[in-house]
């Protein structure tokens, strides 16, 4: 359905920046809630009489349901109308936040989280599509900077806020705080957000044509993505393909998704328009969004894990170490947004962003057990500095050369790619850490030989210190051996984290030339015509 002829004359009735802040509010709430829930898991498990493993379903259930809704968000926006779909997502997310907060049992909480994920998953793609239509092309970079602050900064703020809430109140409040934000977002969205003429026309045409729903495609994508997300989330915990359930779900995901691609490619009215990937710009941008998700979510998981498991930080203090990085991002996002509007070739910004990010990740390989709080803050701030130069230009280049009536599908695709990248990156890095730690443990252990000069010197020094503290000679000897073993484990774990940062930096460095595969953006004055497609 081509856009209506009067689209270029259309402008939103309200200030575009008021609309941008309104839709960003709900997305920020959703992303923040996801990262806050991680911190509260031990409290939830203790309160509801569940084990730690059982409590992780609070996270898994949300991730699976939100992952399922992401790729079909574009189709749902076209069917329901984008404003109606967006407001439905806000209502569902807010109502289910209330249910999560009052959950009396773990199964009730998990069910509420599934429904909350369905609402939350549709917020980010809706917002991105709304911004793409609300702002002219030359200001899209600045608009996506507002959106980027929600998507990128919320995960960094979440652990600090989550730790503070659970320490000072209880875990129920991590869900209750969504209620006022959700209600405010709903009120403002109803007043300010509107669908452009081409979307209204497209919806009318669909109602007149009464196209049948592609239930086969809908079932395939829900099953395939759901199984894949389950495998990625639970794989390392269950020893990957050593577990029959993981193997079964992995095979089911692979078969279902392959059949889904074949089915949707041939369908006249697909749930997910896979043929958009033939557009060189968009296909490359989707891959870059996938890698961005791996780096963004992967590093946000690695650093707090390192600080809490090896350096004894609380969740709140680990979050405080990440928060200055969020401030750096909040400063850099508007800068990147302005640069996109001024620099002739946005691809150069992406390449610079990858270079800065690769250097920042390589710098994290210096992170050791003696690092001070200030050193960690500086390292994290340098690591995230380049992300805005990747996120904003890619989000803008997504729409170059693609028909405007595909904006809903584009935003749905790119958000799905970034979230899937986050799941893949987290799963890969967790597995990488476990495997390399075992390797380092064996290597370091081979040097700990009974009778070895350095080992015996360490034992004697530790034993003498413990005897001075009042331990008997036998007790001190046993404690000294135990401490030597604990030191070996901590050192091997530290080395595995350094290896993970090195691997991430190498992967990002290899992507520096990739943005230049994309077509060069057209001259600024020709951008509107280009955005309509040819």
Write a brief structural summary.
The protein is mostly helical and 534 residues long.
Average pLDDT rating:
78
Any idea what the CATH architecture of one domain is? Answer: Up-down Bundle
Q: Which blocks of ≥5 consecutive residues have pLDDT under 50?
A: 1-6, 525-534
- The fraction of residues in strands falls at under 5%
The N- and C-terminal alpha carbons lie at a distance of 14 Å
Supply the CATH superfamily name of one domain: MFS general substrate transporter like domains
Detailed description of the structure:
It contains 21 helices and no strands. With 534 residues, the protein is mainly α. Among the domains are: 1-211, MFS general substrate transporter like domains (Growth Hormone, Chain: A, Up-down Bundle), CATH 1.20.1250.20; 446-487. 47% of the residues are buried. Residues 1-6 and 525-534 have low confidence and may be disordered.
Summary keywords:
77% helix; globular; Growth Hormone, Chain: A; 21 helices; disordered C terminus
SSE blueprint:
Layout lengths: L15 H32 L4 H4 L1 H24 L1 H20 L4 H16 L1 H12 L5 H29 L4 H4 L1 H15 L4 H13 L5 H20 L9 H23 L13 H31 L4 H28 L3 H18 L9 H12 L2 H11 L9 H39 L7 H16 L4 H38 L16 H5 L3
């Amino acid at each position: 359905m081509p856009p209506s002829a009067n689209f270029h004359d259309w402008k939103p009735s309200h200030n575009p920046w008021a609309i941008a802040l309104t839709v960003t509010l709900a997305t920020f709430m959703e992303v923040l809630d996801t990262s806050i829930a991680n911190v509260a898991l031990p409290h939830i498990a203790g309160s509801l009489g569940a084990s730690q493993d059982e409590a992780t379903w609070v996270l898994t259930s949300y991730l699976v349901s939100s992952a399922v809704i992401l790729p079909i968000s574009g189709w749902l926006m076209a069917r329901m109308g984008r404003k109606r779909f967006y407001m439905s997502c806000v209502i569902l997310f807010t109502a289910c936040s209330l249910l999560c907060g009052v959950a009396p049992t773990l199964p009730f909480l998990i069910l509420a989280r599934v429904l909350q994920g369905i609402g939350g998953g549709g917020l980010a793609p809706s917002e991105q599509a709304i911004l793409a239509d609300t702002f002219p092309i030359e200001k899209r970079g600045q608009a996506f900077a507002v959106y980027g602050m929600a998507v990128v900064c919320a995960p960094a703020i979440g652990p600090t806020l989550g730790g503070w809430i659970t320490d000072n109140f209880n875990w129920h409040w991590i869900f209750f705080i969504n209620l006022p934000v959700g209600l405010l977002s709903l009120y403002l969205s109803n007043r300010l957000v509107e669908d452009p003429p081409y979307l209204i026309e497209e919806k009318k045409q669909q109602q007149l044509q009464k196209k049948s729903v592609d239930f086969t495609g809908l079932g395939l994508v829900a099953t395939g993505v759901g199984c894949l997300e389950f495998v990625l989330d639970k794989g390392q915990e269950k020893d990957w393909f050593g577990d029959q359930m993981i193997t079964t779900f992995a095979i089911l995901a692979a078969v279902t998704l392959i059949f889904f691609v074949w089915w949707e490619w041939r369908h006249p009215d697909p749930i997910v328009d896979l043929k958009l990937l033939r557009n060189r710009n968009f296909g490359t941008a989707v891959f870059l969004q996938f890698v961005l998700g791996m780096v963004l979510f992967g590093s946000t998981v690695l650093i707090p894990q390192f600080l809490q498991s090896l350096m004894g930080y609380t969740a709140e203090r680990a979050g405080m170490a990440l928060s200055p990085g969020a401030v750096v991002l909040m400063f850099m996002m508007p800068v990147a947004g302005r640069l996109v509007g001024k620099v002739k070739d946005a691809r150069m910004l992406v390449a610079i962003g990858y270079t800065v990010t690769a250097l920042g990740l390589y710098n994290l390989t210096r992170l050791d057990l003696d690092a001070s709080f200030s050193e960690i803050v500086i390292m994290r701030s340098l690591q995230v500095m380049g992300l805005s130069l990747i996120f904003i230009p890619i989000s803008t280049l997504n729409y170059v050369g693609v028909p405007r009536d595909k904006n809903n599908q584009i935003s749905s695709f790119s958000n799905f790619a970034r979230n899937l990248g986050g799941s893949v990156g987290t799963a890969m890095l967790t597995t990488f850490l476990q495997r390399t730690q075992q390797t380092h443990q064996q290597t370091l252990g081979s040097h700990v030989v009974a009778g070895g000069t350095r080992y015996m010197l360490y034992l004697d020094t530790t034993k003498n210190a413990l005897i001075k503290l009042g331990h008997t000679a036998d007790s001190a000897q046993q404690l000294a051996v135990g401490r030597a073993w604990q030191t070996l484990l901590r050192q091997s774990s530290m080395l595995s984290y350094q290896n993970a940062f090195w691997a991430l930096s190498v992967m990002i460095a290899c992507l520096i030339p990739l943005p230049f595969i994309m077509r060069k953006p057209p001259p600024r004055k020709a951008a509107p015509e280009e955005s309509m497609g040819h």
